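Q: Could you predict the 3D structure of Diacylglycerol O-acyltransferase?
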Amino acid sequence: MSSELLAPLDLAFWHLESPAHPLHLGALAHFGPPPAPTAADPGPPDLLSLLACRAAAVPRLRTRVRDVLLPVGGAAWAPDPDFDVHRHVHEIALPGDDFRAEATRLAATLMERPVARGLPPWEMYLLSGAPDGSFAVLVKLHHALADGMRAVAIGAGIFDEIAGGRRAAPGGCPRPVPHRSWLPGPGRLLGLARDRLGDLGRAVEVGASVVRAGRLDARATAALAAESSGTRRIATATLPLDRIHRIRRTSGGTANDVLLALVAGALRRWIDGRGLPLPGADPRALVPVSRRRPGVTAGPGNSLSGYLVDLPVTEPDPAVRLAAVRRAMDRNKAAGPHRGAGAVALLADRLHPLAHRFGAPLASGAARLLFDLLVTQVPLPRSALSLGGAPLQALFPMAPLARGQSLAVAMSPYGGNVHVGLVADGVAVPDPDALAAALTAELDLLDPPERAPGRTPARTPGEAVPDTP
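A: Sure. Here are the predicted structure tokens for Diacylglycerol O-acyltransferase:
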């Protein structure tokens, strides 16, 4: 198995991390009870062994980061010669009285801890102990390993429907697929050189936009910016997808516009509930945008750009908030994901590896000058999923916090709902549950519960929200 150089953005994420600012993505997946035993299948599967076996069969999860001589300052993914999946996959039994709440609290504690850098940078935890046999799985993947779409492609390898397509090995465990390199062959080098020259002009344009978009005041960040405490709090919310689409049909725009407006309204409600004054200016959200082609998730590394959107927290009318978000997103889409300050991630491709290695400590605090919180959507496979026959009921994605920021919002549609994961700094935002409750309250403002239900046809499990950036 060959080595593969870290892409520039992956290298940036690798060096931006510090013990107090871990840069891993996460997901907390809740499963129903496994199927009852039958004559043909006399007992439930050993879920821990099944999870370990399937994780070990994903090639990317068997690789670690190592330094390389060339390019100077660079690093590469290489097979871990001492790979042992049991260093990465663990089981923790929880009290069963309020299993989901206990799983969320434990997930917050586990998300505080950086993944080990000398090993393949990922962890999985089987959380058991529910009286009815249901369970949860917490997945942590370093951001250098994958962006949101790539993380889904990697993590999906644990599900029955994806693992079932692999060639089985003796003992029922899928054979690891040989790791392959995505380094360009000689025939592609000339084309890449031409692309790099064209990209240089765009990089200059993005760099100028970043400078113009930088803010030196803290009027919009008082409630959200804080020195990192190294602690995490996590909260979850579940929003019915048919109600999101009912608002979209009534008000125009996209489902993603509706979700961003709900976040804006929830922030306003949360700030008011804490007895704080509204900010002097609207907080700004970074909305990541994948640069992968539709239907393509298997490419190496991170492939991201982004939009910057001012969330209209200072606007009291929820309908006006939604209209403001829709206009802002329309402007972003008209400019495209490769232009503007939100495309700051593209600049990583233009820097020498040494710049990432030595410049990361200086650049790590720059995020607060551009945006106040992250709001991202992570699409899931459209089919129903299961593990060991146990159906996936909900999956709450979790995004990392940038230095100096205290809140990240991630959303995944699945099974007719949008599952929202809120990751917060435990000191700056000790009450993310209040923010999660505010999302539901804001949904009731835009779509009052007394509206006649049932006008929107049911959606298949995992169906993506359409018209997202």
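Q: Anything worth pointing out?
A: DSSP finds twelve helices and 15 strands in the chain.
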